[in-house]
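We examine the record.

___
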Amino acid sequence: MEKNEAKSRIEELRKRLNEANYNYYVLDNPTITDQEFDSYLRELENLEMEFPEFDSPTSPTKKVGGEVIDRFKKVKHKIPMLSLPDVFDLTEIEDFHNRIIKENVEPAYVCEYKIDGLSVSLHYEKGELIFAATRGDGITGEDITHNVKTIKSVPLKINQPIDIEIRGEIYMPKKVLEELNEKRKIDGQPLLQNVRNAAAGSIRQLDSKIAAERKLDTWIYHLPNPEDYGIKTHEEALHFMSELGFKVNKSANCVVRGIEEIEKYIKETTEKRSTLPYEIDGIVIKVNSLESQKQLGFTSKYPKWAIAYKFPAEEVLTTLRDIIFTVGRTGRITPNAVLDPVIVMGSTVKRATLHNEDYVVMKDLKIGDIVSIRKAGDVIPEVVERKLERRTGSEQEFKMITNCPICGSVLEKKKDQVDHYCMNPTCPARKSEALIHFCSRKAMNIDGLGIEIMEDLFNLGFVTKIPDIYALKEHKKDLIELEGYGTKSVDNLLAAIEDSKGNSLERLLFGLGISGIGDKTALLLVKIFKNVDNLMNSTYEDFKNIKDIGPTLAENLYNYFHDVENIALVEELKEIGVNMNYLGENERHHDLISGKRFVLTGTLSFTDRDSLSDLLISYGGATSSSVSKKTDVVIVGENPGSKYDKARELNIEIWDEEKIKSIVDNL
């Protein structure tokens, strides 16, 4: 190949690969296949080796790693990389907002995710990346250019030949950390504890090949000298940096006006936090107007025009005051930690499950220990470990009980099992089983009142009979504190309880737990009798004469509806407002929904996943929490996670938000 021809082909390949990198890593919109990318990259590597005179430090081939340095050089920042003042609750945010108003500044802000990674400064001259540096102490950082060049979302050359400094955050995606730890576990290496440390450790490798293997990524969020480019707001600066080819978190960044909109943004972000493919540890709030930023100025350490709201701690320390025992519907005994009240992720935690005797022994827990507590899945509190160095010698040894705490029966532990059981079939604690059945999906379908929650509510005395379920609203504060629920979770639970009052009679009839009456038999009965009064006034012969109702079922029905306690229960439910009539069969059908199994993943903008799941079920569909070969359709919202990858791997049909919304809108 002639030199001129080679030069032209090299330039063409670099352009194609740079565009492909930008579309894939920044826009998340692949335009060529992996096979095509690899083919172009190999061709470019070969041409650059054959014609070294056309080599360039900004070539896409420089992103594969391979540079090894002896040490990290110090870099002094021309404009200091200041940190932001942290705030931890809405009161402190309101104080910040009030200070802004007192300075006669328009209270318009940009809210952004606070990415859990490490800060980076990127320097370009005539559009080409010259060097990259860490924050360091804010005045002096370290040159990490050799590793930053391996990050696919960092352009080695931007689309304008300008001199510019860009700042952002280097992070490691959650999935990458999981994969990395799986490999390290196999290799017998210590596991990396979190994405922040993993990203920081990766970026400080002397060998850039190691950094390249770690699949780091970036979000860009700050332009230190925007006035040099005629920019007047932070929002404009974000747009400008995106146009230059940087990865800016457009879907997360939001302009808000006033404290109420800030609070709404925080609430929405907190709810979707666990679904994001990367970790965030808070929200950054910045005054949008650059002129206002200049007016507000700086302290010696921080800008006065921005704050960082930190999410409540996920793991905190408290004292294990006691270990008490509860009895489950099967008679299983569960030890529970009684704790000094402590706030974990915004909720007051007083209790946490300790599962079984072996769990307590394994963790070497003693009453009086200082223990660390965290919220598993942001809902259920768990004891992580005791702090051995904090022991004083006054702690009490744990002793497993030998008798049921409810009825006093001797406990049994079956061979090869870890749990102890109360074998007394008449133990009062077993009443919780009837309550669980009443709330189950085919009965009253009260979402949120599952087995473990109902067992706790029963043991705590909040729900000991069916009508107590409808009085739980009187215990809202207790629910938030004792169960580790957030306010939204409790509100959803109470709403589900209230909604259940409107169920058709067949659900109530099945939920009452009449011996031998399943959900199908319940439906058969209510179609005939129409309302509960007709059922209560029927004779044994009335029931026995129904096809498919034999003598035993007829006797069970008659006895149930003529029992004084059962009559009182039905009358009490009437007073509460529970529907007592058959409302007719749901015959809704949709060709794209009925008979199909769905999995929902990611965040939907037009509805929540629970509501959509209920809608799909009402049209004859089924939903599942995991993707398998039996799955027909995976519905994908924003930030879908591993379920989306599994669907692609199994070649399962995928619906995006636009498609499911168009279907729902036409139902």
The chain has a mean pLDDT of 86. The first helix runs from residue 3 to 26. Residues 593 and 621 are 5 Å apart (CA to CA).
